[in-house]
Amino acid sequence: MLPAAYQSFVRRISGRIDSRRIYTDPLSTLTYGTDASCYRLTPKVVVKTHNEDEVRLLLAEAAALALPVTFRAAGTSLSGQAVSDSILLVAGDAWNALEVLDHGAAIRLQPGVLGAAANAALLPYGRKIGPDPATLNAAMIGGIVNNNSSGMCCGTAQNSYRTVRSLRLILADGTLLDTSDEASVAAFRESHAGLLSALSGLALRVQGNETLAARIRRKYKMKNTTGYSLNALVDYTDPLAILLHLMVGSEGTLAFVSEVVYHTVPDWAHKASALVFYPDIGTACQAISVLAQHKDQVAAAELLDRASLRSVENKAGVPALIRSLPDTAAAILIETRAESAADLQRQCAAISALLAPFYALAPLVFSSDAAETTRLWNIRKGMFPSVGAMRATGTTVIIEDVVFPIEHLAEGTLKLQALFQRHGYHEAIIFGHALEGNLHFVFTPDFSGEAEIGRYQAFLEDVCQLVAVEYEGAVKAEHGTGRNMAPFVELEWGADAYRVMQEIKLLFDPQGMLNPDVILSQDKLLHVKHLKPMPVANPIIDKCIECGFCEAQCPSRALTLTPRQRIVARREIAALAASGTEPAALQQMEASYVYAGEQTCVACGLCETACPVGINTGRLTLGLREAALGDSDRKRAATLARHYGLASSAARTGLRLLAGFEKVAGEGGTAALMQGLRRVLGTRVPHWSRHFPRGAGRFSALPGKADSVRKVVYLPSCLTRTFVPSGAAPDARPVNQVVASVLEKAGYALLYPADLGNLCCGTPFHSKGAMDAAEAKRMEVEAALLLASDNGRWPVIVDNGVCTVALLEGLQDTPLQIYDVTRFVHEVAADYLQFSPLDEDVALHVVCSMRKSGQAAMLEALARRCATRVTVPGGVTCCGFAGDKGFTYPELNASALKDLRPQVSHCSGGYSNSATCEIGLSEHSGLDYQHLMVLVDKVTRAA
């Protein structure tokens, strides 16, 4: 039962905010109560906010009831700053506006914009945002600003504090301030004169305390995100500038940031990297101390200890030398960047000269080859996931983040390694942004018992004593203070600085309602409370570290659950089932999961492409579907598989009848009929739009250039044999006719497998969990293709990207040469075709299976042969149609494509290579999407 105050809060906001964005159910509150940290709190109420007016309303109502509020964006933060046991306000997908300003010199961003999306918008200008956290592909701007996130290259010169130009803020009292707007600033100076005066007085007091001011300046020469940004009090005198910079790194404890304008920084095109090995960490740190004096030439220098190198030494692409290194060895991964190739060459030579006095275990060699530098940086990027993947089931992964003054880096690192051994964390590794003295260390504690929690507590206290007291470093360099280090802020900063931080909090949030216990806390044991459980749930997901990297890839992320949230829910279900003490809670969680977790998961597997430990949550969903099938379900699937041709024929007949009805009743009448039937019969009646396909006629096996010596086996997908484009499509030809036209021009004879009408790659069965039926269809198609191709003599082409990938994965151990028709045309048949590209901008959608199998670049290259401009919309991953889910759960398709229309409105047409995907893409884009081969056919002739 929701406590009375929260019930009142929900009543007050209901009707003023869409009820579908207010969550109080156990599944939603649990899953939104998880971020990438080792903490979990379950909020009472979660609200997905859409605009500033909603945030102001929610803050006012929460304040009236004295209820705490926490803000959250992507939830990739590592220190527990995005979790709450009260009210959680989510600023995610709806806050995704961005605008490039001043020809790329600045950029305006809302808090829900991904860091990578900001950089993608700046790429044509040769610019990027300054902050470069490793989470850039998953972290949102709201978190990047509020944590003052940095990364491998930005250091202290290009972080948010240094590059922010203006902010748009909502204070705890509901006041909206836009620091870039003169009228807003003037009004604020009048309405909040007391606050600004207090900030001025605080700055004067701090600046007048020479010891404190010197300490602040010294500590911010390093990376430092422990506590509030006290450097604002010594760097600025204008109270508005002080306010602006205090907000950076404030972790949602002072205000809500609704917009940021960044000054951008150059993104040099010329880069080179080198991995250099040293006999011991002392030598490596001495070399880094020299490099740190030449940051104009050295963009990054990552220190890698022997344990971190050992964690990846057996992975593909890692130099064999690493396996033979002595136990004391260490390495530095260096990158240098320049505006021109000549400058790059000079910098490589200069860095080599700087490092010449230090004995290395192998010669220093710089490479500017993109493939080689990617291989080197993948070594560094693979360390964290390697530890995560190798950890014992039930343990968690913690990545801590400290800074030693650069002159003490070597001895600090050695003492840190000694602490690992003393406390029994023998698996721990150290790597980090050594130019700044910033080290990350990864270890895997077990929080299942009091003794283990006590060990973690003692270790963390020793680390803080070593870093903050003995060496006067920072216990948090770039991950933010959060709950993790809130008990240690005073230890690091001292009583005077801590009192200043308390005054800052009181000035902005006198009620203490914004993100309590984050940054400042009176609870000295906060860091060992509310630790996240990691129960065993399923071998597919047990290695998940709940980092959230997967979420940006998921088509259901704005509708129901993300892959991370599905895993959190399955872990809770497993824990409830194991305990057996709360059967009602288990039943409710399982019932809620059916729609949110299973039915709206498209099982596309794109989550795996972003997951540090390689988890495909789609496999979990498919396993659940298979387990849920009863004997009768399996028998029906087997019957359908045996009579697939008959079923396809029935589907064609139904589609032709519906098309006939549409001719009589029109679009409006057909829509009304289908909507009415759907209301009565539910998902058994498909969602209909004007782009709904028509039934194909009798399949005609077109021969291509029948007498050619160049032959190819053509397997038209079952969709091609069942559907033809809707009456709204510009080109109404069946896809097989288009394919035959292109390949005939290229001089190919087309061969077809026998019993074509009954063949299927198995995907429709596999996606429903009917694995036996899927395997039966796979074996049938394998036999037919081997026969038709003369045991692999002739290549096989498929006209649907989903089917292509299914066959490539399912028929790996055969002599068959399987191509998607797009790849075959691009890589083989193009030699016999002449392309005359259209002077148009066309939209391209890469279907999820092709994207996951690494064929996105090929599809884009083929499209660029056909049109002078190609738009691949950002943020649109899987379209969410998923074979038939666009018919049964159209809200999933709509949600996945909600950002599509504005990105392609300028295009002349849209293209893809999956018939069902093209239906949803057409409905939600304002364009008519067709198979990419339609465009190829339009622009080619025989060479």
Helix segment count? Answer: 39
Oligomer: single chain
Q: Tell me about the biggest sheet? A: 6 strands, antiparallel
Can you give the helix content as a percent range?
Answer: 40-55%
- The overall average pLDDT, rounded, is 96
Q: Which parts are unreliable, with pLDDT below 50 for 5 consecutive residues or more?
A: none
Look at the helices and sheets and give the structural class: alpha/beta
Q: What percent strand?
A: 5-15%
Output the radius of gyration.
Answer: 30 Å
- What would the principal axes of the Cα set say about the shape? globular
Number of domains: 4
| Distance N to C terminus | 73 Å
Number of strands: 29
Organism: Craterilacuibacter sinensis
EC number: 1.1.2.4
GO biological process, one term: lactate catabolic process
Protein name: D-lactate dehydrogenase (cytochrome)
Textual characterization of the structure:
By secondary structure, the chain is α/β, with parallel strands linked by helices. It folds into four domains: 98-258, Uridine Diphospho-n-acetylenolpyruvylglucosamine Reductase, domain 3, CATH 3.30.465.10; 270-444, Vanillyl-alcohol Oxidase, Chain A, domain 3, CATH 3.40.462.40; 535-628, no CATH class; 630-943, no CATH class. It is 43% helix and 14% strand. The protein is built from 39 helices and 29 strands. The strands form eight sheets. A six-stranded antiparallel β-sheet has the order 12-14-13-16-17-15, sandwiched between helices. A five-stranded antiparallel β-sheet has the order 5-6-10-8-9, with helices on both faces. It has a four-stranded mixed β-sheet with strand order 1-2-4-3, with helices on both faces. Helix 21 (563-579) runs antiparallel to helix 22, helix 32 (821-827) crosses helix 34 (856-866) and helix 34 runs parallel beside helix 39 (932-939). The N and C termini lie far apart (73 Å). Its EC number is 1.1.2.4. Belongs to the FAD-binding oxidoreductase/transferase type 4 family. Keywords: FAD, Flavoprotein, Iron, Iron-sulfur, Metal-binding, Oxidoreductase, Transit peptide. This is D-lactate dehydrogenase (cytochrome). One of its GO terms (molecular function) is D-lactate dehydrogenase (cytochrome) activity.
